[in-house]
Amino acid sequence: MAVRFVVYGTIGWVMEVLWTGLGSLLAGDPRLRSQTYLWMFPIYGAAVLLEGVHDYIRNWHWFARGLIYMTIIFAVEYFTGWLIRDIVGTAPWVYTNRFAIDNLIRLDYAPVWFVVGFLFERVHDFLDERLISL
What we know:
The chain has 134 residues and is mainly α. The protein has one domain (2-130). Helix content is 64%, strand content 3%. The protein contains 5 helices and 2 strands, in the order H-H-H-H-E-E-H. The protein has helices spanning 2-26, 40-45, 51-57, 62-88, 110-130, and strands at 100-101, 105-106. It has a two-stranded antiparallel sheet. A hairpin with a 3-residue loop joins strand 1 (100-101) and strand 2. Helix 4 (62-88) crosses helix 5. The radius of gyration is 15 Å and the shape is globular.
């Protein structure tokens, strides 16, 4: 389980770096500046705990699975952001656009989280095939 935690945490960090770097490119920053937060590693690593959800809904229609993943990711993002904000006084991410809820989640990210759920499905299946006991 520890190896899987590290795999999910690392993939999450890489996704954030690529996502924010792409955002920099689209904003005209030729440096392609990227960022993530140390907080994100354990948050993404916790995806290991969702492998059971994937196993349970594996044969459901793809759209239903995507909605479930999106909802879980939003809930985790909101709760962890709220918890960190409560403990240290600010959340690592602060969303301010019109789609933000409590500055902790952005509803316009729904398609992204929908797709990310399927990415983590693939990672889970790969880990099951290659690293069965880890």
